[in-house]
Amino acid sequence: MWRSGCRGASPALAARLSGAGRTPQQHLRWCQSKPKRSRFRTARIVVFYGGIAGCITFGAAMAIIKREHRENLRKLEANWSDDVTTKKKLVILGSGWGAMSLLRQLQPGLYDVHVVSPRNYFLFTPLLPSVTVGTVEPRSIAAPIRKLLTAWHGNLAKFYEAECVSIDTEKRTIRCTDSSGVVGEVSTFDLPFDQLVVAIGSQTNTFNTPGVDKFAHFIKEIPDAQQIRTRIMDNIETAYLPGQTAQEQKRLLHTVVVGGGPTGVEFAAELRDFLLEDLSKLYPQIADKLSISVIQSRGHVLNTYDSEIGKYTEKEFQKHSNKIKVVSGARVVEVSDNTVTVLDKASNSRVALPCGLCIWSAGNAPQQLAQALVKGNPAQTNRHGLITDDYMRVKGARCIYAVGDCQTNDTSVLASQAEQLFRDADVNGDGHLSLDEFNTLMDKAQTIYPHVNVFFASLKEAMGGSAFDLADTNKDNQLDFGEFQQLLKKVDSELTSLPATAAVANQQGAFLGGLLNKLADRSVALDVNPAMTGCKPFHYQYMGSFAYVGDNKAVLQVPIFGTMKGWWTMLLWRAFYFSSLSTWRTRCLVGYDWTKAYFLGRDTSRL
């Protein structure tokens, strides 16, 4: 029986396999002595087939969820013509991170949703610096709004490609105008709302610097990136013309980046990669004249990150022959067609830098619509944006919310109510707060104002004491109004404005979408305080910050692990952005662009 497996083989092979000349016992020992499959190989097989099974299971689950979502949308659409008259009209201004995150979180059919934006696509802004040099193509990071709305809300939500120019808070209507290149017979219309969400983002802050609007380039939209890409190639081709002087070549090939934040740093890094990997091969005669300068008003670039990351970035900028020069402790006072005038804040001296291209990424300012909403509203005292409470409600305006870059926090929440809070806490009316009265007030305040918890936690960690002991400066075991007011100012100091980033806008939009779902389910009044319905206030969860620093390296700062840097961090950077793209279409296009740029180089055509 043990020789039956040798049938069909050649005589020599059959003799070798059948163990000719061996007894059955010898053949058994020979089989037992054969090398066994290693555990490592078995583990690889299990992981491989397990991964395939996991992907199939995940894909099937997503297909089932998507099918159920489409079926629910069909049921809602069937009766929508009758139901829409009973729904509250929710108008959303904008098509950025805050607006799209809200629409993704908002449950279909709860509101009559109308979206108004002059841009009919969602732009993945973190990869915009890559578009300026051709690493990623423009359409790879743009997702059509109507396609996203159809996937999330079917035909229950409407989109209008128009710009909101005014808001009537009393009549609760907005006026919109067609700002596109093609204008029909009707170019202006009014749209009423029950609830309005302002998610219009911000514009670049020029700080009233002369010449910035006319001669500098911004990195806010796709047309900005396309203009920069064209200008870069135009400068290079002009510098390559025969007879061009060395001084003029140096000016044309010098790029000045104003602002050492993530946008400015990533643009400088992408441009240096473009010079080293592509332009140096195509224009070897002028490659050594290509230069980049970054103007930073603070002590180092990426000043919102850990100082170690800033130093690492500047060290990376100094590598290779085409170094990126960082001018720290300086600010730009004037921009012209050929020069950028820089003021050194230490010596108070001015230097004119000849350049062919100036990139301005020095900060954000509110849009004109947000500025108009602030005017005439005494509750709006911050010139940087619309002040909202912890539920994204615009202060001093009924039924209006704000998320994203156009929004800012109120940093005097408790201090502005010091007198009323003191009166409510002073139960016996003796003009002083005892320890019990103070603790009762703070227990109530912690449920309404989340930054009170932050202050108490930081106070305990830093001093190991209580807020009452800190406020009781004369040590009489009670607080008068002056001591109480000073304490509230210290508590409010913990409440700072959130950074104008995509991560903040994304979380704010998701929070507001969930809040509107809850308010619609509970059928509450339009202007009800969400705190009275048991809804929790917004709390930003800092998940970390990425920045690409060039030469296939990136930096990362996360709360738990601290700082990370290097080429493998760049892999994390790309993996995170790849997974954050809104659709599989954009993921495929961006992945193809990265692969194409790596193996075939970037396109240098000036279209």
Give the strand order of the largest sheet, numbering strands 1, 2, ... along the chain: 5-2-1-9-20
Distance, first to last CA: 77 Å
Radius of gyration: 31 Å
Number of strands: 24
Main beta sheet: strand number and arrangement? Answer: 5 strands, parallel
Averaged pLDDT: 86
What is the helix fraction of residues, given as a range? Answer: 40-55%
Strand content: 15-25%
Structural class: alpha/beta
The total count of helices amounts to 21
Return residue spans where pLDDT drops below 50 for at least 5 consecutive residues. 1-9, 458-464
The global form is globular
Report what the structure shows.
The chain has 607 residues and is α/β, with parallel strands linked by helices. Helix 9 (222-239) runs antiparallel to helix 10. Residues 1-9 and 458-464 have low confidence and may be disordered. The strands form eight sheets. Strands 5-2-1-9-20 form a five-stranded parallel sheet, with helices on one face. Strands 13-12-11-17 form a four-stranded parallel sheet. The chain is built from 21 helices and 24 strands.
Condensed summary:
The chain contains 21 helices and 24 strands.
SSE map:
Layout: H1 11-18, H2 24-32, H3 39-78, H4 80-83, E1 89-93, H5 97-105, E2 112-117, E3 121-123, H6 128-131, E4 142-144, H7 145-153, E5 157-161, E6 163-168, E7 173-177, E8 188-192, E9 195-198, E10 202-204, H8 212-215, H9 222-239, H10 246-252, E11 254-258, H11 262-282, E12 291-296, H12 307-317, E13 324-328, E14 330-335, E15 339-344, E16 349-354, E17 357-360, E18 364-366, H13 368-374, E19 386-388, E20 400-402, E21 407-409, H14 418-425, H15 435-448, H16 451-463, H17 467-471, H18 481-492, H19 502-521, E22 545-550, E23 553-558, E24 562-566, H20 567-580, H21 584-600
Parallel strand pairs: 1-2, 1-9, 2-5, 9-20, 11-12, 11-17, 12-13, 19-21
Antiparallel strand pairs: 3-4, 6-7, 7-8, 10-18, 14-15, 15-16, 22-23, 23-24
